[in-house]
């Protein structure tokens, strides 16, 4: 994209293409799907956090009228699966041992839910309870029970990295401080629970409908576990009621439904209850970060020594990537010459944690940004000034080899400082009120797929309908509420040169090509690239046909706003129309005008070449360094953001209320301004919840104590502050039309901005989340004692 280029579709405030369906209730979610003779499947889960399975007797369940199939681990192929091939540590149904309360033991299918639940109670399992561990400290103890035999120390994954010379960096520092932060594990809290319907057909093919955000990875995992060829497994994602990361892998529902449908030959529907959503988890880890930072007197950052432990639950899930992300994402957006990171992800007898919005980096960023404010106070500097002193710019490369092809970090910081009246408010607010700021940084698509492969990260096909009036975009990309369908439709329209109304989009189906899914904020940049290429392919074919027909050079032709633009004179459009009216009666009745329309030009192309299909594909170039773990954190581009939060704290009770947040995000080039702002607001909402309320609680047996949205507090409209969203555009050279991420990066500054505002209001730094009134009040009292 050339700076200053004028777009016709990109950068506007287009209505979402899925808005009519969702606003009228016509949108088809998993619960709206119906299949003839479908069965209902359910899963039997372990009541123990850790136990050996001695015997399973399912005879009574199998004999119950209406039960069509019962499966245990012994009935399935002895194969392990997971997210990363480096840690395939899960069994679909436990064969010998269960490792958390909720671990899957058996599944069955019956004619209705009542029969299925009755049959579930008839399955008798004899367990031998084993010692269990629920905390990192207990899991690392010398005499701790072993959760997986392959990992006798209960360490799922560990990272040890150093960039630069950290010891020398500290030796050259004038100020050194060490701080800690502990969060609690969270739930994704999406409105729609996981659901799946499997339909095995007579030709040996399996169609799986799943409320997933990664149809391709579900297809691959189901194929691997069932033994069906990948080409025999089709995954279709209907409308999805939220994902946020915990829907970024194949679930036991997907695979159990598949096996039960294969066994019965009938469609099988399975759903998690809300409690089962909490038991499956796969959401935010509990992190315990310790950071030692060194600074010069002028505010220059010299060194960071970072240690982190993650409580990961019973299985790996995304945990290997998570423990790397927790360190690598601190390499930017500040000039940090020396960085050391030691991270451990620990197995415990709790539900497995995985990926959640801002994967791996949210709590690390919260501590680091709080430290920046604490250092600014020691140095007598304004927090804004300290950040600008150390900011990276486009063209810079971090100490861990993350390349900043674009970076509007400086502009974001300046935008929120001006937009929040920072200078007018800081130090001048009434007692109990405070203002704080923070920055954020995140990938714009993971540079490498989860499994090692040369596959394209996405492919897109655009077909021009035979009348030329509509183009159909077909992609496997996962629209999960983030607005990707609208963005792809806008990119296609811009690339071809037609109005948005002329584009139809079909997505979320593995039959439409490969797309790795909605995770790591990848869709706008990666699927957008493939969509743009497919659109340009369509445009080139149409113009090639038209140039031949008009006997003019192709470079004299263009398509703009649905009309053919011709440079120069000497082209008789009327003669072309008359020829086609005479020879191809299909043109009769089409609208006539002074200009040749895209519809007419596309009809020319169809009659000359047949169906016009454009294809596009994308995978990133080779990225990152050569060190172990270098692939995690690499991206074709990086998004960045800044926020200023203003809070009010009751100094007698510790109750915190967030009054307003000013948020700026560098999204490269905004495809749809309204969607960008919506993603910014959604990120702030999730960040607010994690900072203020959210904590999954367990009893001493490993059972979840608050497995409902009535007991697990997420922000409501009553909790949300006033928001001022500022879109910063930096023109990303590696993005389609200059675009990059906004889906996850905007959550990064929310927690530390609130923490810094609370400290400004109270003088006390809180190092444990969530910010309950008790914790805030204790911090105030401890500060008063000092």
Automatic annotation (TrEMBL):
Q: Origin, by domain of life?
A: Bacteria
From the Swiss-Prot or TrEMBL record, give the protein name.
4-hydroxybenzoyl-CoA reductase subunit alpha
InterPro entries tied to this protein: Ald_Oxase/Xan_DH_a/b, Ald_Oxase/Xan_DH_a/b_sf, Ald_Oxase/xanthine_DH-like, AldOxase/xan_DH_MoCoBD1, AldOxase/xan_DH_MoCoBD2, AldOxase/xan_DH_Mopterin-bd_sf
Q: Which SMART domains match?
A: Ald_Xan_dh_C (SM01008)
Q: Which residues are in the Aldehyde oxidase/xanthine dehydrogenase a/b hammerhead domain?
A: 24-131
What's a Gene Ontology MF term here? iron ion binding
Q: A single Pfam family, by name?
A: MoCoBD_1
